[in-house]
Amino acid sequence: MNEKLDLNTPVYLLDEDRKLSILDLLDYFGQMGSMRVSDLHLKVGSPPIYRVDGNLQKMKGPPVDAMTMESFARCLLAEREYEQLIKQRSVDSSCFTDATQFRMNCFHDTNGLAIAIRALQTSPPPIEQVGFPNEVWRDIVRKQQGLVLVTGMTGAGKSTTIAAMLDHIAATRACRIITLEDPVEYRLKSKTALISQREVGRDVPSFERGLRDCLREDPDVIFVGEMRDRESARWTLTAAETGHLVFSTLHTRDVRGSVTRVLDMFPVNQQDEVSSQLSLGLSHIISQKLIPRAGGEGRVVAMEVLNNIYSVSNLIRLNKLEQLYSQLQTRTKNIPEERMVTMEKSLAQLVRKGIVTPMEAEKWANNPLAFVEEMQNH
Fold first, then answer.
1. Beta-carbon count within 10 A of 214 CB
2. pLDDT above 70: residue 35
3. Is residue 18 predicted with pLDDT exceeding 50?
4. Which site from 34, 216, 223, 291 is most exposed, i.e. has the minimal number of CB atoms within 10 Å?
5. 141 and 41 in a common domain
6. Is residue 2 part of a domain?
7. How do residues 125-152 score in pLDDT, each as one tens digit?
8. What is the secondary structure of 20-62 as a DSSP string?
9. 154 and 261 share a domain?
């Protein structure tokens, strides 16, 4: 199959009279809104499947066969990306329609080719609309240095939260912002700041190399798409320690797990040194989840927030991580010196506002007993 295919090429036989293109399948995101329809899954042996309000829904159509999957991949990928898919068995990419930007991963499973496509908003939401449980974002966007980690499972909205903060900084501060992303998700505008967005694999070979370069490019604010390994973590910590405001993400479910994940990237004999480095360089950890709304349409963010005040820094340095939760529970005043909140308290706030049902909130709590106590305290 050497013919040139693109997003408009009809390749999926829906019925005897109609073939759909990738663009037809992607239009559903625009119809429903990317806050409701987040993903499209394509694989051999299954009809196209969308993730709507967090749940998978099969499209009414025949299973996709191997030839159609190959056509999907050729429609979506540049030639070099398709060659990488064949050689390395997977590839990350992105594409655009008039209304929406998408990131995707093409890979192989036991049935053959498969593609996971995620919708991204073309511009981040205003920071006031992200859903912070308190005013902590105001403290973060004013920071001149330190590491801000936004953590959560895949699809929890981490990139959206960071993009909203970067967009606010870009609009309000004359500074230099450099991002390292895989792939670039939101196209940020320079506004008052000067922004350079670099894509790993296209503009720079790796996060590590990008961070090495970045420190010689006069940045004030750095966004590292993900701390994936020891070297990227080391350089990210170094950047935060040397006078830069650094944002990054981790796939962890709570604040304590985020600190543990960073430490576990290093050998045991280096963890005391890294604990000390993290205790000094860390600014905030925001661990978030997207919770289905009570009305059944859309999702809302719940956040656990850690502020690295002196007492927290001391616990991290001494590796007494089991005591972090008590800090989250007690240092909750809405002032810059505190502004902490547990996931359970954040969920309870959403329940009391009628945004999330008690049953749904308890299901998403890290500590269901603590959530019940939060509900009983009011």
1. 24
2. no
3. yes
4. 216
5. no
6. no
7. 999 999 999 999 999 999 999 999 999 9
8. EEHHHHHHHHHHH-TTTEEEEEEEBTS--EEEETTEEEE-SSP
9. yes
**What is the phi/psi pair of residue 14, to 5°?**
-75, -45
- Produce one character per residue of 322-334: b if its CB has 16 or more CB atoms within 10 Å, e if not: eebbebbbebbee
Q: What is the pLDDT of residue 34?
A: 59
Residue 355 and residue 305 share a domain = yes
What mean pLDDT is reported for the chain? 92
Q: Which domain covers residue 29, as residue numbers? A: 10-120
The predicted structure's pLDDT at residue 326:
96
Handedness of CA 212, 213, 215, 220 (dihedral sign): negative
- Which letter, b or e, does each residue of 277-307 get, where b requires 16 or more Cβ atoms within 10 Å of its Cβ? bbbbbbbbbbbbbbbbbbeeeebbbbbbbbb
pLDDT attached to residue 2? 57
Residue tagged 């992200």 (tokens): 130
Judge whether 362 and 371 are in contact, CB under 8 Å.
Answer: yes
Name the pLDDT band for 346 (thresholds 50, 70, 90). very high
Considering all CA atoms of the chain, what is the largest pairwise distance in Å, rounded to the nearest integer? 68
Domain count, the chain: 2
Q: At what angle do helices 271-281 and 255-264 cross, to 10 degrees?
A: 130
Identify the helix (H) or strand (E) that includes residue 369: helix 368-376
Closest by CA to 210, choosing from 243, 180, 166, 187, is 180
What pTM was computed for the model? 0.83
Q: Single out the residue in 73, 104, 120 at which a domain terminates.
A: 120
Instruction: Give, as one character, the DSSP assignment of residue 139.
Output: H
